[in-house]
Amino acid sequence: MSTEPQITLFIITKNEAAHIAACIQSAKNLVQETVVLDSFSSDNTVQICRDLGAKVYQQPFEDFTKQKNAALQKVTTEWALSLDADETLTPELAEEIRRAVSNPSYDGYELPRVNNFLGGRMYHGDIGKEYILRLVRTQKAKFEGGKVHERLVVSGMTKKLKHVFVHTPYADLENYFTKFNSYTTLAAQTLYEQKSPDGKPPFLMIRATLSVLTGFIKRYIVKGGMLDGMRGLIWAVLSAFYTFVKYTKLWYLFEKNQPK
Question: What whole-number distance in Å separates Cα of residue 116 and Cα of residue 228?
Fold first, then answer.
């Protein structure tokens, strides 16, 4: 029997047939087990996962934080590797992870992620390369956050690894706007439930409007998105608009729920 640390890949899914095979296969020589928590996909996501040897569970989707914590709780190995269905490890990162988990000094590893957008890689802006905690000691980790934009946290020391994994979140612009609508709604609901003081009228729409300008300047100029050409311009504009729509939906929640 191998004495190497055991790793489980865990993923949440909903209609990810276009991506999930590449995700699972990118880690097949690294992990001992793959756990998939599916939200009752209507395509053949579940069958693809089972054909690739994954353990598949299903439960209704409430929000990203709860769903990922539920998936993490099904991991029984010492180490847990979190990937989204539209992410893949590079062979270089897989090998680096194999070496890293043999080091008992750390309880988590931040992995550098690169992003593809509209058919090409983004090198600048806010998504050129971002370090995200994705590899953790299972018993010391959990997800925190709201309905969307959850984050994995671990109790203990962490270290950054060198080699990248790849994120291809949008098949096309239609797919982008489908996710855009869903994520802005979930984000607005999270803020409304928190009843954050800076999220209440009358300053809410002022903040939403200012966010368009400041968000664009940050991504396109400060972080160098202009160097990614047309993709950089499109990403900066759409990302700034995302924040505006999120706060607009939050404003509307306050409006429709005001006492009459």
Answer: 11
Task: Indicate whether 259 pLDDT > 80.
Answer: no
When pLDDT is cut at 50, 70 and 90, the band that residue 103 belongs to is confident
Share of the chain above pLDDT 90, in %: 77
Instruction: Kindly tell me if the per-residue pLDDT of 159 is higher than 80.
Output: yes
- How far is residue 196's CA from residue 217's CA, in Å, rounded to a whole number? 26
What pLDDT score was predicted for residue 202?
A: 56
Domains and their CATH numbers in the chain: 7-167 (3.90.550.10), 173-256 (no CATH)
Measured distance CA(27)–CA(14) in Å, rounded: 20
